[in-house]
Every structure is written in C-alpha cells, then in structure tokens.
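Notes from the 1:1 (GR / supervisor)

We went over the backlog. Supervisor wanted to see one worked example end to end before approving the batch request, so GR pasted a single chain during the call. The sequence is below; no edits were made to it. Supervisor asked that the structure be written out right there so they could see what the output format looks like.
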Amino acid sequence: MKEIEILVEVYDNVKVIKQALKNFEYKGLKKTIDEYYYDPKSDILKPDKHNQLNHCLRLRSKNNEFFVTYKDDVFEKGKWLYSNEYETEIQSIDIMKEIFNKLGLVKYIEIDNEKETFIANDYEVVIENVKDLGIFMEVEYCTSDDVDVIKVKKEIQKFIDDLGLNVSSELNMGKPEMYMRKHNIKVD
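Structure output shown during the call:
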C-alpha cells in the first residue's frame, strides 16, 4: 500500500482544530503506543546520522489491537515523498516482543499518543496529541494505484490550507525522527 501524506504541527488548541473538522465524519479517539526496533548488527533499521529513518519496524498497540509494521520511505532530492507500508494485525504483542528479542532486535524509541480520526472525502485526517512532542495533523491518502505523488501532495496541502488552521509547513519527517531530535536520542 502506498501511503501519501503530509504531516504538520498544529499551533491551535484541540477545540479550534475540532471546529475546523466538524463537517467531516468522526471515527473516534484511540490511544496508541508505537515502539520502534532496530537490529544492532545491521544499519537498515537504524536512523542515519541525522536521525532520519529510511526503513522502520514498528509494534503498535491501539486500544486492544496490536500490529506489526514495516515501512520503507521513498525520497526525492532528500525530501520525503511517501512510504510503502506493510502492516498486519497480530494476536499477542508480548509474543511478538519475545520474537524480536530472540532475533536480537532492540527497542530504541516509544511514541505515546492519542489519535482522533476524521474521514474527509478520500483523506484520513488524524489529529495526534503526542506525549512530550506536541499536537500534529496527518492528512493521508492511501492507494495501490500508480498515481502522481507530487500532484496528490499538492492536493493534500490545499486541503490543509483550506482548513484555516495555524500549522507549520510540511515536516518531511515522522514523529520518531522528531522525538529523537527533540530528546537527543542516538542509536549506535
């Protein structure tokens, strides 16, 4: 699945954000814990020297559901374009953690957040209140089709601009990278 998204930090409070999204379908609030792992014997899952991830392995706990995800990011001229995401639900996160441990994988970061999801036409809009990081909005378009990624990103940016919220420009990095930079976390 090709995941095309724009992530921005939102400087308005949650009440203002919800007012801007009031005409869209509300899908609910979910508490999410994302744990990221790397293999100390390989560089593929490690952040680079700038804490940029090109590939990541994640365990996600979302309410009482659990997922394992592998993502590889596609960049153009050093700018993130989209991710190829491979995710499947798992029955037991504890067993998956034990499997990762037996494989020698190491957890290096945990992102704790609350996500409120809205559906707006072809977009999933997620407001994320990330512990020790801030409030973010992710607008995502998922497809299996071959699409013009640049065109889709421009359409997503127009959608964000039309909401009238006080937001940053596109962050071009995920919350793991931002968290590592903010908290000076290094992976050797």
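Supervisor's comment: The mean pLDDT is 92.
Batch request approved.
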